[in-house]
Amino acid sequence: MRWDNLTDGPGAPEQSGALFGAASVVTRTFDTPEFRGITFHEVRARSVLNRVPGASRMPFEWTVNPYRGCSHACVYCFARKTHSYLDLDTGLGFDSQIVVKTNAPEVLRRELAAPRWAGAHIAMGTNVDCYQRAEGRYRLMPGIIEALCDRANPFSILTKGTLILRDLPLLRRAAEVTEVGISVSVGFTDTDLWRTVEPGTPSPAARLAAVRALTGAGIECGVLMAPVIPFLGDSPEQLRATVRAVAESGATSVTPLVLHLRPGAREWFTAWLGTHHPHLLPRYERMYAGGSYAPTWYQRQITRQVHELAAEFGIGPSRRGAARRVPDAGRTAGPAPAEPVQLSLL
Questions:
Q1: Quick check: helix, strand or coil at residue 124?
Q2: How far is the C-alpha of 78 from the C-alpha of 264, rounded, in Å?
Q3: CB-neighbour burial class of residue 261 (10 A; exposed 0-12, middle 13-18, buried 19+)
């Protein structure tokens, strides 16, 4: 495995901005049913605040990702390419070789306390899921949420993991002092499709039950309807069934996002498609001939259909959370300290 571009091992220049020390990598396996076949690479991170590349389409500038790789094993996951930076396989390796930043909570607490940190919004779960299976063992998110809460730093979480309910008391406490945005990803309710494209995730029904539990506890929760998969999850009947289920969960909003296939994910998804739906290969070649994204006309069509269904089922727009209410004394409004650029294709 190649850690060279992330560590301060032999050959790394001084002031290289390495994310962790080479000597700090510890590899573990656990012979328990939930972790069988998964290898964990435990590292001591130097930094966990990642600046999103300026060219990104994302509406946020900073992220925290306590894990790399994801046991959710979604065949379409755009983050697969990031595993190639470690010379790890972007297919099965991404699903089973998980990098764990074991000191993420304490490093984040230190970085949030830096004089130049201005309290910008921090997004989590935007690269790989912070509530994937490994979180049940490593329990990094409680410390991360506590650090954010103590500084009244606004944050958001996107997840397919129902484990987020474990941290409901912490989320409620954070929502009392800062803006907290929670979104659960549910692209479809078709159980046959779920079993093949998202084999390591909780079922769509379980995720929607988590939405219901969050909203019932007073935590506003939207649904990112992602991905809408062309020719497999985009029929009018499938869209209607999904939006209806989202509405019944009590979600405050539903936002559709059509499947995009970036390098790394594209190859893995295409291989899966050739095995399970080979007749669709020519249609996908035409659909994504222009690059990673489906044609604009198709994206607009799906968005219009979902918005019309949302209006029919009474899903309103989510409201902005309360403003921060913890004094920010002692901080200046200057730029945040220089940090390593996030190694992902956002």
A1: strand
A2: 7
A3: buried
Residue 7 has phi, psi (to 5 degrees) of: -120, 175
Residue with tokens 């009947």: 237
**How many CB atoms are closer than 10 A to CB 181?**
20
Q: Count CA within 13 A, CB hemisphere, residue 16.
A: 15
Q: How far apart are CA 265 and CA 304, in angstroms?
A: 26
Strands 49-51 and 39-43: unpaired
Q: How far is it, in rounded angstroms, from Cα 99 to Cα 40?
A: 6
Compute how many other C-beta atoms are within 10 angstroms of the C-beta atom of residue 102.
Answer: 18
Q: What is the rounded distance in angstroms from the CA atom of residue 168 to the CA atom of residue 210? A: 10
Q: How far is 16 from 154, CA to CA, in rounded Å?
A: 30
What pTM was estimated for this model as a whole?
A: 0.85
Pick out the chain residues at pLDDT < 50. Answer: 1-18, 317-346
- The pLDDT assigned to 154 comes to 97
At residue 128, the 3 state secondary structure works out as coil
Q: Could you give the strand order of the β-sheet that contains 180-185, starting from the edge strand earlier in sequence?
A: 49-51, 62-64, 122-124, 155-159, 180-185, 221-228, 254-258
- What confidence tens digit (pLDDT) does each residue in 250-287 have? 999 999 999 999 998 999 999 999 999 999 999 999 99
pLDDT tens-digit map of 47-75: 999 998 775 566 778 999 999 999 999 99
Task: Name the token pair of 92.
Answer: 């099965």
Place of tokens 């190639």: 84
Task: Measure Cα distances from 248 to 131, 171, 208 in Å.
Answer: 23, 22, 9
Cis-peptide into 236, omega within 30 deg: no
Q: Do 165 and 159 form a contact (C-beta atoms < 8 A)?
A: no
pLDDT digits (tens, 9 = 90+) for 199-221: 999 999 999 999 999 999 999 99
The CA-based dihedral angle spanning residues 204, 207, 212, 214, taken in that order and rounded to the nearest 10 degrees? -160
